[in-house]
Amino acid sequence: MVTIQNQECKVVQGTTPNPKLSLISDEQTVLAIFTGKLSGMKAYMQGRIRLVGNLSLALKLTKLFKVD
Questions:
Q1: Which run of H or of E encompasses 64?
Q2: Which end of the chain is more exposed for a tag (fewer CB within 10 A), N or C?
Q3: Range of the domain at 43
């Protein structure tokens, strides 16, 4: 489970009963997105990531993780 709040990104093992947004993907893809090596939009368009929930939050993620 990843929580992004107050300019901090925390990753812990487990789930939350009512997630606002779920990203379904493999570990490599998520790590590439969170480290800025892969655009989340590109991963989505390639079918490497699936989104469930509040999609407007997914759009905000593109501003949090810089892609070089």
A1: helix 55-64
A2: C
A3: 20-68
Within a domain: residue 65?
Answer: yes
Give per-residue pLDDT as tens, 37-60: 888 889 999 999 999 999 898 888
Residue 49 lies in a domain: yes
- What is each CA distance from 37 to 6, 20, 28, 53, in whole angstroms? 23, 24, 11, 24
pTM over 0.85: no
Which among 60, 68, 64, 1 is positioned nearest to 34, based on CA atoms? 64
